[in-house]
């Protein structure tokens, strides 16, 4: 989970930490669970626009501060890959195992495999330029750049993350291939069709406007290029369901307050958004079982002497994050939280 976000589109007004995201054939709305009335700028006028801008700016600031404070702790304990690991279902990885970081690398490799991205492409189809949308401290960017011999640019809201990522690139003699900058995921500072691979590993959950997020991914990917989104989602709604159950929404709201998340959405929502752009080879999968050992492992690490000392030294946001981890486990066990991958290709 990494820092990246931009001001929400004026199409939507979100109520941070208390809304769920729904798709329909005609529109995508943020909806407050305590009211059946959708909140759109067309009905709320300038007041709603101003409120949306204010709440989004507060969310951006919160995300940046959260990762400014917590990224050092994460790197110290878990290394430079700030995302889930990919495990065999029902595997039990013990605290002393080195399997956690290997599982994080496996997450990258499995994402590429699922998306059909390989190093064996013909020259004109090779991956030459990559953008890592929500790059953290650059673990995925450096790995992908090395794997494909490609140029990679990472973007994040956190100045601390961007600096650390650039420092690590220099230390690993990759500064000529990899660079990092502070930028908004929803207003990316790149020309259209620049990248052969658009990579978003656990950053979509921070986006207050999922439609604009997808629009930007589609805009910057080159014709024939691939988009890979790996993200936290809520479960797909059943036919006839209009919203999550109140207890499910309450669980997500409690997580949102700690991790600075706006409205959640489902993998179905992402698929519908990608379909609206007439993209090809759209695929998705639920990898919840494959990441199940991750949060228990993080908790066990936090409860070691080194983990506790580092946690206390890191600050209150890190402590609150640690206390919220059991809610993530509960969400996965009860099927409310899903870990999804969604991928597609832009037509030539």
From TrEMBL:
Keyword Metal-binding belongs to the record: no
Span list, region SAM motif I: 130-139
InterPro entries xrefs: Methyltransf_11 (IPR013216), PiNMT-like (IPR025774), SAM-dependent_MTases_sf (IPR029063)
Keywords attached to this entry: Methyltransferase, S-adenosyl-L-methionine, Transferase
CDD domains: AdoMet_MTases
Cross-referenced SUPFAM superfamilies: S-adenosyl-L-methionine-dependent methyltransferases
Annotated ranges, domain Methyltransferase type: 131-229
Region (SAM motif II): 193-201
Span list, region SAM motif III: 220-229
Stored PANTHER family: MAGNESIUM PROTOPORPHYRIN IX METHYLTRANSFERASE, CHLOROPLASTIC-RELATED, METHYLTRANSFERASE
Family note: Belongs to the class I-like SAM-binding methyltransferase superfamily. gTMT family.
Name of the protein: Tocopherol O-methyltransferase, chloroplastic-like
Organism: Camelina sativa (False flax)
């Amino acid at each position: 989970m990494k820092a990246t976000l931009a001001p929400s589109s004026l199409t939507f007004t979100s109520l941070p930490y208390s809304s769920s995201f729904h798709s329909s054939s005609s529109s995508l709305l943020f909806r407050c669970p305590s009211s059946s009335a959708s909140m759109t700028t067309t009905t709320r006028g300038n007041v709603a626009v101003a409120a949306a801008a204010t709440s989004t700016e507060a969310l951006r600031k919160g995300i940046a501060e959260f990762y400014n404070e917590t990224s050092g702790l994460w790197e110290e304990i878990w290394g430079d890959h700030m995302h889930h690991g990919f495990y065999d279902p029902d595997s039990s990885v013990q605290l002393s195992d080195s399997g956690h970081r290997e599982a994080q690398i496996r997450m990258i490799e499995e994402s590429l495999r699922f998306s059909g991205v390989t190093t064996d492409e013909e020259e004109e189809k090779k991956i030459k330029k990559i953008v890592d949308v929500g790059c953290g401290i650059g673990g995925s960017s450096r790995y992908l750049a090395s794997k494909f011999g490609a140029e990679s640019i990472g973007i994040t809201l956190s100045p601390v993350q961007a600096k650390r990522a650039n420092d690590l690139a220099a230390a690993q003699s990759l500064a000529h291939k990899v660079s990092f900058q502070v930028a908004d995921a929803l207003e990316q500072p790149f020309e259209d069709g620049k990248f052969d691979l658009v990579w978003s590993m656990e950053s979509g959950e921070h986006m207050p406007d999922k439609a604009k997020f997808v629009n930007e991914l589609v805009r910057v990917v080159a014709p024939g290029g691939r988009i890979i989104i790996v993200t936290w989602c809520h479960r797909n709604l059943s036919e006839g369901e209009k919203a999550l159950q109140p207890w499910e929404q309450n669980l997500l709201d409690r997580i949102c307050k700690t991790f600075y998340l706006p409205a959640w959405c489902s993998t179905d929502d992402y698929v519908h958004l990608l379909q609206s752009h007439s993209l090809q080879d759209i695929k998705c999968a639920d990898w919840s079982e494959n990441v199940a050992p991750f949060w228990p492992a993080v908790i066990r690490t936090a409860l070691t002497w080194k983990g506790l000392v580092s946690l206390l030294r890191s600050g209150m946001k890190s402590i609150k994050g640690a206390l919220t981890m059991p809610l993530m486990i509960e969400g996965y066990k009860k099927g409310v939280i899903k870990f999804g991958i969604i991928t597609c290709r832009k037509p030539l």
